[in-house]
Amino acid sequence: MNHRPNSLHMSDIAHSMHPYTNMRLHEEKGPMIMAEGNGARVTDSEGKEYIEGLAGLWSVAVGFSETRLADAAYAQLKRLPYYHSFAHKAHEPSIRLAEKLVEMTPEGLNRVFFTNSGSEANDTVVKMAWFLNNGLGRPEKKKFLSRTKAYHGITIASGSLTGLAGNQKDFDLPAIPVTHLSCPHFWRYGEEGETEAEFTARLLKELEDTILAEGPETIAAFIGEPVMGAGGVMTPPEGYWPGVVEICHKYDILVVSDEVINGFGRTGARFGCEKYGFTPDILVTSKQLTSSYMPLAAIVVNDKVYNAIADNTAKLGNFGHGFTGTGHPVACAVGLENLNIIEERDLMGNAKRLEPMFQDGLRAFADHPLIGEIRGVGLIAGLEMADKKTKQPFGKPGTVAAKVVALAAEEGLICRNVYDTVALCPPLIVTEDDVREIHARLGRALDRALDWAKSEGML
Predict the structure, then answer these.
(1) How far is Cα 334 from Cα 70, in angstroms, rounded to an integer?
(2) Buried b / exposed e across 425-438, counting CB within 10 Å, b at 16+?
(3) How far is CA 133 from CA 127, 143, 223, in A?
(4) Residue 301: what are its φ and ψ, rounded to 5°?
(5) Could you tell me the pTM of the whole model?
(6) For residue 7, is pLDDT > 90?
(7) Sheet of 416-418, strand order
(8) CB atoms within 10 A of CB 40
(9) CA 192 to CA 79: how far, in whole Å?
(10) Nearest one of 98, 253, 128, 279 to 181, comparing CA atoms
(11) What is the pLDDT of residues 415-439, one digit of tens each?
């Protein structure tokens, strides 16, 4: 994978700092340089083509090099390349996109605030919750509830909500008042002899017990991904989400649905909250909002949240928060065209139609010696590399999953290792032939990884 030194390769090593990367290892290994993308495939600088099995970073819904999005960006760049939305200013792309998001999201979510990324959006959610509670005369109602293995971003506030050690260690996080509840992953955290219903009941009891112990008057919101993504693609146990909402609303605690990965059909429904039967007070979306052609995220809130914020801005004379790029006209124009494509081509329906084929084909690997569990919904899945009986990883944690991902790339499939899980999340435009090829290439990588693990004495 791009072992041959070239000017870009060496320049990257000399000058670039990469996120989620061992920088010293990168100095030795160097980058895989991507040169082109077309549909569900990308090509590296050496001419090797891959199926993009993670849709970039869980995000390129309409595939790569969609000319309609390029045309929408160019047209907006020529007409109004930039304007802000501070102090009563507005422009058509952000207005139209806000209208579209209110139309597409669950009933009752009526107001939209734009940011540049999901991390910024969840950071803004924290500030909104603090702002509205101060305005309501509840200055002590500031704590957040999240979950272990949750991923909500990497700013100081959103990184605090995240429940992954790798995102917090040596960053001095969490830095805001947040309690991380148990991860709702039944296969790994269910107790011996416990049914799924009993597991759900135990987690809901933990939630209510935590609220009562902390004091309902101190807790502002519960935030969660309907399907947990970057923590390892964990689907919730049956009845979990409706139970969470019932308990939170009992104690006047806001429910935030982080749909940055889940949104716009990824789970086989428009949004993950609809898949699992609940309506949040706040919904956060990004990634597939523009298919990541432009940086953009949106926070969609209900009238209760909006009115509390708006009333406080009237008291103070201002909502002192926003970004230079909030509602950027080019990003919003691309987002609106992207959502039009998703609807016109029924890409959310495509995810639902291909779900059985995609998921069943992956579950055909269930007996593979490297695989402990296979889980997923819609067009997102995770295969955990672990001993089926002990549920422990083979060798050093993360090693086997990383090897599978490296071998999958050699086979022409890009996926991602998330700790001990191999994650897949292909573009929503994939076809049946693409899905078959994903399965075939992954299967070869798994078999090669098995041979390697045996040679290393791991099995």
Answers:
(1) 8
(2) bbbbbbeeebbebb
(3) 10, 11, 16
(4) -125, 160
(5) 0.96
(6) no
(7) 371-377, 380-385, 421-424, 416-418
(8) 23
(9) 63
(10) 253
(11) 999 999 999 999 999 999 999 999 9
